[in-house]
Amino acid sequence: MKREIGGGPPVAELENIHLSFGGLQALQDVSVAVKPRERLAIIGPNGAGKSSLFNIISGIYTPSSGTIRHKGEARPARMRPYEVARLGIARTFQNIALFSGMTALDNIMTGRNSLMRRGVLGEALQLPWARRQEIEHRRRAEEIIDFLEIPSVRQTPVGALPYGMQKRVELGRALAAEPELLLLDEPMAGMNLEEKEDMCRFVLDVNEIHGTTLILVEHDMGVVMDISDRVAVFDYGRKIADAAPDDVRRDQAVIDAYLGTAHEH
Amino acid sequence: MFYRETGQYKTTYAADRAIFPIRQDRVAFAVLLLVAFVAIPLLANEYWLRSVLTPVLVFSLAAIGLNILTGYTGQLSLGTAAFMAVGAFAAYNLEVRVPEVPFLVSFVVAGLAAAGVGILFGLPSLRIKGFYLAVATLAAQFFIEWLFTHVGWFTNYSTSGVITAPPMTLLGFSFESAESRYLLTLCIVVVMAVMAKNMVRSELGRAWMAVRDMDIAAEAIGINLMKTKLTAFAVSSFYCGVAGALWAYVYLGTVEPQAFDVLRSFEILFMVIIGGLGSILGSFLGAAFIVLLPIFIANASGVFGDALSAETIAHLEFVIFGGLIIVFLVVEPRGLARLWQIVKEKLRLWPFPY
Q1: Residues B344, B85: Cα–Cα separation, whole Å
Q2: Which chain B residue has the Cα nearest residue A59?
Q3: What number is the ipTM of this complex?
Q4: Are A231 and A41 in contact, with CB atoms under 8 Å apart?
Q5: Nearest chain B CA: its distance from A172 CA (Å)
Q6: What distances in angstroms separate CA A58 from CA A33, A48, A140, one per listed residue?
Q7: Percent with pLDDT over 90 in chain B
């Protein structure tokens, strides 16, 4: 299947973003945009500002200055994370952030909460709309469970699941919100080759079948080079490269950032 | 052998999310209801109905309330008794000032008033959590107790500071006998417990548990933390408010603000912890445990006859009670509800080894 990248304004566009914590400059004058249906990878050494960038897009941090645009329209300077989520932006976390006391199914169902109606009395009395809503959304959650090949663990508390399965459930929870833009923070970290292959397949399918735009932070260069359309490289809070994988591989600034520069003595 | 779901296929999502998906559980629950509604009023004597079973039910309701807040939403509260007091005094004041209002309506108003106060004292939860929030709710506890003691309006300027609940009549029937009061409480508690169970197995309950387990991820997936926490405070306080009104009207009859002191809050917190955090069933088990255990200890120490003085027995009660709680928490920190779950899992195979 041929993907059409682009067409329409960028799903997310950051312009001249600065972020500082006290005296520490976490991000300096960063501009980056992701086109509809594109797969953008963000790489860089530890502390380069990759996770800060994710936290800015998802509303957890507010930038010190700069503009964020969503589909061409400037977002308010301050947005709560749940408001960002309701724009159609979902994410996973670097350290798995599942709801550990709940089953895999309930975690994924919670991903659909923002699409569901809240009515305390209706839910308490299980009025027809509340019952119908639970069942309709359960059906969608089960589709995701099938897609991620985890039906056997749906009633298992996620705390009892092995690491790779937890990563899948977390992806499922993000997918359940039916996002247009999916932020994946190190989706392959700590996985063996087989688990990585599975995860790559899921991520590519999501992108190609549902047209979900992806931004992923990842340290595994093989994965990054294989699956992304474009790679943005960060170092010390600055973007030092932004190009197709093959061009980034040859970029001198990138090589210096990863291997270190030879200092003149 | 007797408790297995083999052959019971769930073919719809509706069947899968039923409160009791397994037939044996449905039968057991029906039997339990039959016992509670028919057998107990017929067999139990006045003392048991009035002084044991009715308070167990009222405490269960308060424990459900606290469990929604602390067990499901993860917001530690030490103000439970204060919210009960708000309910009791709201119902009383409504009845005194507008005598035409049926008492059931005033119970609902009691819950709503407590919900309002709960939201107010829940506001700090938007910024603080854990022990710090517990201290903030402690402020609610002391402030409300002080308010009802010192502002005469709330007690209708009664000189002793004690309020006496007006008689409860519904369609000409007066709830005077122990049986009628027990059954009234039972009806209210059963309906509200089912409603609580419905909430925690729906969208709302998942939002609460998401906030409890990982609030950052909950917000990132689109859950409005402020709304969800305040809803938990409101619903929780509503339950406590109705429990408080029942405590004043059905159980005690006359009540003073000191009946809702901080020790009462702790008592309910113990019920929730011993029964099981995050379990509606656990709220009942915890309430029954805390109310019944001292009675059993007192009866058991009776076998020593005159060998022990009454004073020693009273002290012994406290020692055994405290010891049991500690043993219990060490053995099963997740409470009686978890023990029950383990028993059920074992029963699926019993008496076969595999």
Answers
A1: 38
A2: B220
A3: 0.92
A4: yes
A5: 12
A6: 14, 18, 24
A7: 51
Which B residues in the span 10-49 are in contact with A, Cβ-Cβ below 8 Å? 12-14, 16-17
Q: Please, what are the domains in chain A?
A: 1-77+215-265 (3.40.50.300)
pLDDT at A239: 93
Q: Roughly what angle, to the nearest 10 degrees, separates helices B280-301 and B335-349? A: 100
Instruction: Identify the residue whose tokens are 């010390």.
Output: A236
Distance in Å, alpha carbon of B198 to nearest chain A alpha carbon = 5
Which residue of A92, A98, A113, A155 to mutate against B (max B Cβ within 10 Å)? Answer: A113
B184 membership: H or E segment, kind and range: helix B178-200
Q: For testing the chain B interface, which of A82, A129, A173 should be mutated: the one with the most B CBs within 10 Å?
A: A82
Residue type at position B177? S
Q: What is the C-alpha to C-alpha distance for residues B73 and B92, in angstroms, rounded to an integer?
A: 30
Strand partners, A65: A18
Q: Are A260 and A45 in contact (CB under 8 A)?
A: no
Domains of chain B, by residue range, sit at 21-260
B224 touches chain A (CB under 8 A): yes
Over the stretch A21-60, which tens digit does the pLDDT of each residue have? 888 889 999 999 999 999 999 999 888 899 999 999 999 9
Per-residue pLDDT at B304 exceeds 70: no
Chain B nearest-CA distance from A85, in A, is 5
Binning pLDDT at 50, 70 and 90, where does residue A262 land? low
B213 contacts in chain A (CB < 8 Å): 98-102
Q: Give the pLDDT confidence of A165-191 residue by residue, as tens digits.
A: 999 999 999 999 999 999 999 999 889
Listed residue (B101, B21, B111) closest to B65, CA to CA: B111
- Among the partner-chain residues A97, A109, A114, the one whose CB lies closest to the CB of B217 is A97
Among residues 269-308 of chain B, which lie with CB inside 8 Å of chain A?
278
